[in-house]
Amino acid sequence: MMKYKTFLPILFLGLMASAQQITCSPKDKSLFEDKIAALQKTQASFLGDTIVAVGKSFLDTPYVEKTLEVGETESLVVNLQGLDCTTFVENVFAFGTMLKSKQSSFEDFTKTLETIRYRDGDLKGYPSRLHYFTEWIRNNEKKGLVKDITSDLGGVELNKPINFMGTHRSLYPFLSNDTNFAIIQQAEKELAKENLCYLPQDQVESNEQQIQSGDIIALATSIKGLDVTHTGIAIHQPDGRLHLLHASSKNGKVEITQEPLVDYLKNIKSNIGIIVARPVLLSF
To answer: Is 23 strand, coil or helix?
Structure first.
């Protein structure tokens, strides 16, 4: 989930977000304008339904890794042509936030995306990106954008060091920089101060009706040093069951799982359960 790939020619727009460069292709700028215009006609009164409507607008968008690893310094990457699981959630959430706050400009979008993607909403280089999804949830809860409801669902705590980046430095080119590496290690130490709270896999089905369409679902893992391996958006389907709307690496596109979420989880060997964050937008 922490790996991204770029496949598009890029254009550095003459725009700034917190004094940082924005990386966006002309095609992506055009896609933004088309999407926001179309979505303004379809937004729902309930935030979760708005999030789902935005998510569905990305159906069949190709899954692409490393879309954020652009250039030699961190920039705010806008890529709507190819998404991984995290950038799918971030872009959907950004559009949903804009719709609920009645914003429509590209500048509003980039500011919102920066707020969601970076620690305390401030792009200050590679280490300021919220690489671990548990920190993504905690920091966006601090901003008033989401609420972690995992404990309310009966989640259990797990004392687990989250330090995969620090212990696998060679996998991340930006970590060859000693300053970047030191900041990531410090972020991992901060994460270690709180236990990981997750809803065990065998309790997901009995709680799925308490999970709302539009909630953000993160898949907790048993892999050493990692918190989650995948993320997506909860969606209740006509079969009455909870499914996952997500950017699938297996099928190479944004899709809705054919099977209910609980059955999807059973096919992932390392999965131990889920973490659930509900969009609330208290700060908007």
So the answer is: strand
Single-letter amino acid, residue 81 = Q
Taking only the tens place, the pLDDT of each residue in 11-27 is: 334 333 344 589 999 99
What is the tens place of the pLDDT at every residue in 76-113? 999 999 999 999 999 999 999 999 889 999 999 999 99
CA distance 124 to 221: 29
- Rounded to 10 deg, the angle between the 106-117 and 85-100 helix axes is 130
- The tokens for 279 are 């969009």
Under DSSP, the state recorded for 174 is G
Give the ranges where the chain is alpha helix by DSSP (H): 26-39, 47-57, 85-100, 106-117, 133-142, 164-167, 178-191, 204-207, 261-266
Q: Longest C-alpha distance within the chain, in Å?
A: 51
By the 8 A CB rule, do 70 and 23 touch? yes
